[in-house]
Amino acid sequence: ADLTLEQRQTLLLELAHAATVIPSVRRFRAGKRIRHGFPGYEQIMPVDFQYAALMEFDDRAGLEQYLRHPAHAAIGSHFTASAVRALAYDFQMTDAADGTPADFIALE
Questions:
Q1: Is the pTM of this model over 0.90?
Q2: Which of 38, 39, 68, 80 falls 20 to 30 Å from 61 in CA-CA distance?
Q3: Domain annotation for the chain: domains and CATH numbers
């Protein structure tokens, strides 16, 4: 189910709270989708997600600290309630400007 405006506002407040109380959160960003109208990926997306949130951690241990923290439980309840239209993934990232193609493959 889609979240109401009030539910989205509550979720954003809880994400911001988690970003300030969980020491391992290094960066938290949230935003609304931009529709630019240029041909390509925008027209072929099968599902429309209007909002995105991104949290960054130094390492896997930081992610796991976040996942175990009580502030994360409040956030999780929103994703469970709206699971039909929500995605949550964990990625190990590297800066593309600092790496080579082999660095991206080696992230496994």
A1: no
A2: 80
A3: 5-105 (3.30.70.100)
